Amino acid sequence: MGGGGVALLAATATVASMQLRKAPAFDKIAAQFFRSRHYSVGFDAGAVHRGLALIPATARVSATSALVPHLAARPYIYQLPYVADADYIAALRQASTFPLSPAELEAQAAGYQASGHWQVVLAQGPLLILRRTRPLPQPTQRFSSAGRWGRAIPPADREPDSSGVSAISSLAPATNPFRP
């Protein structure tokens, strides 16, 4: 099969998968870029863009799949349901919510609001923006650069080498937490 035949086969398989795919929360219209309805929305896109402008450019954001490309020019962008250390959550409720179903997205958003850790910045039309109000807990120091098991290496464990620089004589912890 020549190069043209392989390209035709690949194109046919791609279009067929867009037509026949059946997956939970999969929005067929969002994948069918060759149809005109893919390019129409039932809401004010300009209002959504103005709402997204409320999110600082340096903020870490977790967003629904339809918003991720519009927020991608930032250091940290996550796709919902992954929130991690995001400062903001941006959800477009009248577009593709994949991989969440619309009901799952609403339940997750309600859970964040009820937790007291997130505040509504904007809830206008299909756009919901939440801002984290409480900082994340500090990570444990157990495996920090202070030394194994998170304890600082006391000066007594350091011995100067011939150049006068202190070297660590032993990295073994005083007690091993994995042994009784």
Task: Report on this structure.
This protein has 180 residues and is α/β, with parallel strands linked by helices. The protein has a domain at 41-132. It is 24% helix and 17% strand. Strands 2-1-3-5-4 form a five-stranded mixed β-sheet, sandwiched between helices. The chain is elongated, with a radius of gyration of 26 Å. The termini are far apart.
Core attributes:
single chain; alpha/beta; 4 helices; 180 residues
Strand content: 15-25%
The radius of gyration computed from the alpha-carbon positions, rounded to a whole number of angstroms, is 26 Å
Distance between the termini: 66 Å
Secondary-structure element series: HHHEEEHEEEE
Q: Low-confidence runs (pLDDT<50, min 5 residues)?
A: 152-158, 165-173
The largest sheet is: 5 strands, mixed
| Silhouette | elongated
Q: Please give the number of β-strands.
A: 7
Q: Which secondary-structure class do the elements indicate?
A: alpha/beta
User: What oligomeric state do these chains adopt?
Assistant: single chain
Estimate percent helicity: 10-25%
Number of helices: 4
User: Averaging pLDDT over every residue, what do you get?
Assistant: 76
Short description:
With 180 residues, the protein is α/β, with parallel strands linked by helices.
What order do the helices and strands come in, and which of them pair?
Blueprint: H1 3-20, H2 28-31, H3 45-52, E1 61-63, E2 77-79, E3 88-92, H4 102-115, E4 118-124, E5 127-132, E6 158-160, E7 166-168
Parallel strand pairs: 1-2, 1-3
Antiparallel strand pairs: 3-5, 4-5, 6-7
